[in-house]
Amino acid sequence: MNVRSKMFMPLRGRVVARSFSVSRPRWEAAPLPTSKPVGAFRGGVFGFLSGAVVAGASVYYYILGDYRVANEMLTDDISALQSATLKLQSYINELESKMNKLQKK
């Protein structure tokens, strides 16, 4: 006989079957503690507050983004106005110098 045939031989003429039953103490385990139910009022208040916080945060970030865009546009307009003012000032100074030259002749 080889080793493989010995593995499947019954012990002393009986077939050994494995039991799949669960022991009795496991069946009689302590019941799970019951959770305290959340009342409709507390659940409603919690839901309302969480929704209000989410909506407020989203509006805050939307307004913050809009403010940044408006601020950048205003800064660009101010710099454009400043450069136009400098060009106009240099043009006026040039005209005044030409007028002074013409008056001295």
TrEMBL record:
Membrane spanning stretches:
40-63
Whose protein is this, by species?
Answer: Penicillium frequentans
Keywords annotated in UniProt: Membrane, Transmembrane, Transmembrane helix
- Keyword Transmembrane helix belongs to the record: yes
What is the name of this protein? Uncharacterized protein
